[in-house]
Structures are given as structure tokens and as C-alpha cells.
Inverse folding.
């Protein structure tokens, strides 16, 4: 190697390190975007890694706004991943029959989340939002997530979904209506939410049907475990049927909100997320799919 090549090689290495550092400064936001798009931390990480690969192969010097460019790339990658899901249902929840694909929540001990998890959950309304997002078409989901959750202009969303700006606005509008109907805004008082979840668990353990109904909204909906139940008595009956598992349940934070995890022999067998609205439990989302549970870190809640 000629001596004259050494400064050039050093320059390339320095440029590569600088590009990697710039990418890392955007990683948390990109991971948050991808998680809300895909409902899976592992898939979100795959999407972010794909964005890095594309950046490393691009002429980064010509990118004026790296954050916007990376968000667009991650959006496209996630859109392709959503479209490739063969089991995806695109009808509204009320017409879909079986419950939608249950996303993988972010779990944390009741003592709180670490900074990385806090960044993931900063603008989420919990697992209920992710469940409703699973009922949207891929294009609707992208338009809603990018615009409503991350303030990306419709002019930038339009080329990702291959629509006009006006059509992209309509995609987000349709998605917004479904989200409002299926993911009500939860109460802000986390302590009160924890009280209600604890009361729910105590009532199930004690077989106290009336106490169970008392903490549920009259129009409560439970989703998962192979079916959808609606109404306080129906949901209470369903919960009572699993009373034999209640002693295995323990408190946890599920997507930043008070929830329950069911742990048997140091293995997750269920996750319950609760949405509390106006002082009652309005939505219960249940994840019991072994394959998706296997992707969660049980050590976080032991």
C-alpha cells in the first residue's frame, strides 16, 4: 500500500464513524416509529437495521435532513413488512370476526421503565392502540402512525404509500376514526389504574363475581385468548373461568400502564393489558400466543 493512500483510508474510516454516530442519534425515534408500525420489538429492530444498511449504501452527503430521510426509509420498510403478513386482516374490528393479531407489548417491572423503554412509550396510549392498529390496512397504519404520532407531514407520507397528499390525509382520517372507537384515551392517574387492576386480580382470585363486575365498565371489551367479549357480565364470566391461573399472575407495567403477567416456572404464559377510562376498566387485551410470548423478556418482570 502506498503511503499516499493512508490519509484517504483514514478519511473514509472517519466518515463512516461520523455517519454511524449520526444514525445512532436517530435510533430511538426510528425504533419507536417501527414499533408502532409493526407491534413487535424484534421486527422493529429489523426494520431499523435495514434502514442503517440502506444509509450505509447511500450518498449520505446529499441527504439534507437525515432524520426525515431515515423516517421515510423505515416507513417504507415497515410498509413492506406489513404487506407481507399473510395472516393480516384488514377489516374493521367489529366486522373481522376473530380478534386481530395481538402485538408484543413492552414489559417492565412496576418500579418503572428504563430510559430506552420510556422513549419507546413516550407517545403511546398503550397496548389497546397497537391492537386497533392491527385492524388497519398497511397504508392506513403508516399514515396514522407517521402523521398523528410523529408529526410527519402528509406531503412526505404520500410518496411512501404511493398516493396523493389528499388521499394520504384520507387514509389517516379513516384510521383515526377506528382508533377513537377502539382505543379510548385512558385515565392519566396511574396509581388509580393500579388500584383497579389489583382489585380485578383480587376479585378473580377470590371468586367474587360482584366485585369483579364493579371494577368493569358496563361496556367493557376483552380481546384475545381466541375471542372478543363485550359487557361487564360477559367479561367477568370469562375472567372467572381462569381463576385457577390467577395465583400465577403478578403486577407489571405493560406498554407503560399497569397490567398483569402470568408466569409459570419462570416462563411467561400470558400478558394482560388494561385500559382504564373514567375510573373503570374499559378494555382488557390478552396475549397468550406462545410464539409471541417467547419474544418477551420474562426477566424484566420476575
Amino acid at each position: 500500500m502506498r503511503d499516499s493512500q493512508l490519509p484517504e483510508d483514514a478519511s473514509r474510516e472517519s466518515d463512516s464513524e461520523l455517519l454511524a454516530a449520526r444514525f445512532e442519534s436517530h435510533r430511538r425515534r426510528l425504533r419507536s416509529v417501527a414499533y408502532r408500525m409493526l407491534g413487535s420489538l424484534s421486527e422493529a429492530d429489523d426494520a431499523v437495521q435495514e434502514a442503517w444498511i440502506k444509509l450505509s449504501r447511500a450518498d449520505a452527503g446529499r441527504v439534507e435532513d437525515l432524520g426525515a430521510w431515515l423516517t421515510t426509509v423505515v416507513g417504507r420498510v415497515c410498509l413492506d413488512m406489513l404487506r407481507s403478513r399473510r395472516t393480516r386482516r384488514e377489516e374493521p374490528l367489529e366486522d373481522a370476526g376473530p380478534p386481530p393479531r395481538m402485538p408484543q407489548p413492552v414489559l417492565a417491572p412496576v418500579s418503572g421503565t428504563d430510559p430506552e423503554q420510556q422513549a419507546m412509550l413516550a407517545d403511546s396510549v398503550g397496548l389497546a392502540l397497537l391492537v386497533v392498529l392491527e385492524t388497519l390496512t398497511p397504508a392506513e397504519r403508516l399514515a396514522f402512525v407517521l402523521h398523528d404520532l410523529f408529526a410527519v407531514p402528509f406531503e412526505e407520507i404520500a410518496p411512501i404509500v404511493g398516493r396523493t397528499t389528499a388521499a394520504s390525509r384520507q387514509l389517516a382520517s379513516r384510521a383515526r376514526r377506528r382508533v377513537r372507537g377502539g382505543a379510548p384515551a385512558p385515565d392519566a392517574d396511574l396509581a388509580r389504574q393500579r388500584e383497579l387492576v389489583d382489585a380485578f386480580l383480587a376479585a378473580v382470585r377470590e371468586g367474587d363475581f360482584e366485585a369483579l363486575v364493579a371494577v368493569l365498565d358496563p361496556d367493557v371489551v376483552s380481546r384475545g385468548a381466541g375471542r372478543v367479549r363485550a359487557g361487564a357480565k360477559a367479561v367477568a364470566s370469562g375472567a372467572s373461568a381462569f381463576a385457577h391461573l390467577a395465583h400465577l399472575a403478578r403486577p407489571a407495567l405493560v406498554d407503560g400502564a399497569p397490567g398483569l403477567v402470568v408466569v409459570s416456572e419462570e416462563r411467561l404464559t400470558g400478558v394482560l393489558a388494561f385500559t382504564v377510562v373514567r375510573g373503570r376498566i374499559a378494555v382488557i387485551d390478552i396475549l397468550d400466543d406462545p410464539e409471541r410470548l417467547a419474544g418477551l423478556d420474562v426477566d424484566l418482570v420476575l
Observations:
- The longest strand covers residues 267-277.
- The chain has twelve helices and seven strands.
